[in-house]
Amino acid sequence: MRHLDAAVSEIEQELITFTQDLVRIRSYTGEEEEVIRFIKERMEQLGFEEIRIDSMGNLLGRIGNGPVTLLFDSHVDTVEVNDAEQWSVPPFSGAIRDGRLYGRGSVDMKSSVAATLYGAVLAHRLGWGEGVTVLVSCTVMEEDCDGENLRHLFEEFELRPDYVVICEPSDNVITLGHKGKAQVVIRTRGVAAHGSAPEKGRNAVYEMAEIIRRVETTNANLADAGKPGSSRGTLVLSRISSTAESLNAVPYDCEIYLDRRTVPGETNETVQKEMERIVAGKEAEWAPGTLKRRSWTGLSVVYEPMHPPWRIAEDAPLTRACAAAHRAALGSEPERYEFWDFSTNAVTPVALGIPTIGFGPGEYKLAHTRDESCRVDRIVEACSFYAHLVRVLADTSDTSDTSDTSDTLNTR
Q: From the CB of residue 31, how many other CB atoms can be counted at a distance below 10 Å?
């Protein structure tokens, strides 16, 4: 078995250059074809044993054929750049300055894409993965439809991995869960009338005014209910619009879009009861804020944004395995665990009962920001962590009670 330091040294420059190349490819949501095909080509060069693209455009590669299946997931789409002239480093340059790689997606989350590919390869080259089937997914449309990509991938390829690592940015801190999400539309109905005779109509915007106050009060109550230092639920009005026959008419329709983030202990039923209270007594109705999008392959995607929160236990087998990988790769015990404020692709494996955890390079507070950047050494560390996690799971595979998934990627 080759020495780890020598193996990491061999791939380090190639890993970083590949990450730079990924950042240089613009891959807004729904426009990921170029970056998917670029990664597919690199998987082929690195010796992935099976590589497939599903009907939505998600990419999946496999190395190994062991009885335990581990999936590393990273999304390749990014939010748009609308202020490029204000960046101190061009957003698609992939430039490295003072040990940081700059550019859109450097944090969210192309550094993770590169680290998972090379982490899987590193484990394979060191002979660590004989008991593990390692899957690497590079998923699309996460920014708008988190989890819908993995749902398509799992269903189309009949996948059910034993463990999933969501490689969203955590600054290489093991992350045990994240908040839930419910996006909701509330609509009020009015009666149209000419602006010169408003008493003949009913203004849908005025009908909405009390609802908006209730939304604000609900969010304040959520803040008061939270324990100091703990995560708390939030409710935000993110969009409002109205419809009238003209600018001289009473609006007959008003709509608001709400973003509700939930914490452990809250459920989808919690949100449903909350929305019923908010619209009670008003000429109003609420519904999930269903989104309709089209993937780069042309597939129509319908997304229902109602996901509960989740948290894996600190003493769960996957958590313990990650702690062991942390000790081996970073040379220390985990000082703390993270809990993400945002939602991720984890919603799909968690809903299926698959043990899921988070770990990825980059500070998540820098995602979606101007001058987004990731420390280069964190990318190398993450690559080593992923390789060590394969080793840890391989060492325990003989006593695992998971079923044989050696034909995971085979078609029916």
A: 16
